[in-house]
Amino acid sequence: MSAATGAGTSLILDGITQRYGTALAVDTVTLDIKGGELVALLGPSGCGKTTLLRAVAGFLKPTEGRVIVGGQAVDHLPPNRRTVGIVFQNYALFPHMSVAENVAYGLAARGVGRAEQKVRVAEMLALVRLEHLADRFPRAMSGGQQQRVALARALAVRPSILLLDEPFAALDKNLRLDMQIEIKRIQRNAGTTTLIVTHDQEEALSMADRVAVLNAGRLEQFAPPTDVYDRPETLFVNTFVGTANILHGRLVTEPGLGRAVALEDGGLLPTVTALPDGTRVAACLRPEHVAFEKDGAGLDGVVEIGLPLGATLVHEIRLEGGARLKTAEARAAGAGPRPPGTHVRLRPIAPERVSVFPDP
Ligand code: ATP
């Protein structure tokens, strides 16, 4: 028997708007999520992620808009009639129940018989690799183990939609990566359509099939992680996801050079854009697209600071014109940063690497 009968259920959030008094917490958000997809709702605190999750769970009836699960509007259904499983930030396990009892809880509440309960609990504990801890109590388990129990409990009722609300917030960094991989594996195997709320961009980019980036209640971009990172559609997405060099200036067309940003700090940064000359813009450039040049022509500057960030070397360079650029490169074994004051040359930056957005 498959671990989840809800595999492949689509989820549509259709024009969801939520007002609290006069405050607009969510503004006409539409997301069309395919069956089996893992979608991350990513954004800073207060952008409306939890509100959207609560609307899907049925804890909240949005001011406007509809929630459609598997082609059926579910707006009239209370939470317990929606086929939705939830894992909360703090796991919310029942402390007086064993692991097996916790996992069986939702099954008993839905009138599943004892024999069938046993089968399903065993199936779920195998899925999260906790068969050996069925009789333990939550207090005698690690955070990661408790989280897997919470996941098993949520999946036991075979939800068509799984909702994860900041599920890794309570875990330390190492365990977090293990659990991210683990949850991704379980979600793949179960084929359950999943919405995960997070304010952690790395988590969203590494786990999700598609990322919905939210800012102040509005959907800024809904796309696969690589697109969100490589082709951000707004200045907000560019700065919130990944690290960006942001330089301000005005668009010009230079003879022999083409379109460029005439930087406020001096210098020209070639770019590709449909915006007209004269537009004040923020030019964004990923640090890993700024490389050092050994012999050829380039932009001259001086190292202000260098940081060895584990596998990456980061430098901040002050160019001759005064503009500052961060660089990022893979760190070779044993290599350290260049000392402050070192004169360096940066390779001319490819125009298509420079995204420009009208300066607000
Ligand atoms: P966080 O990451 O901090 O949990 P979030 O992105 O999940 O934030 P929401 O909890 O959805 O954000 O809140 C969105 C906005 O709505 C915030 O400005 C919040 O203050 C407001 N808000 C949420 N719930 C209520 C409520 N019950 N009454 C009034 N305002 C609310």
Topology:
Elements: E1 11-20, E2 23-33, E3 38-42, H1 49-57, E4 64-69, E5 72-73, E6 84-87, H2 99-109, H3 114-127, H4 143-156, E7 161-165, H5 173-190, E8 193-198, H6 201-207, E9 210-215, E10 218-223, H7 225-230, H8 235-240, E11 245-254, E12 258-263, E13 268-270, E14 280-285, E15 299-309, E16 312-319, E17 324-330, E18 343-346, E19 355-358
Parallel strand pairs: 3-8, 3-9, 6-7, 7-8
Antiparallel strand pairs: 1-2, 1-4, 4-5, 9-10, 11-12, 11-14, 12-13, 14-19, 15-16, 15-18, 16-17
Helix pairs in contact: 2-3, 2-4, 3-4, 4-5
Residues 20, 25, 43, 45-51, 199 line the site of adenosine-5'-triphosphate.
GO cellular component, one term: ATP-binding cassette (ABC) transporter complex
Family: Belongs to the ABC transporter superfamily.
Domain ABC transporter: 11-241
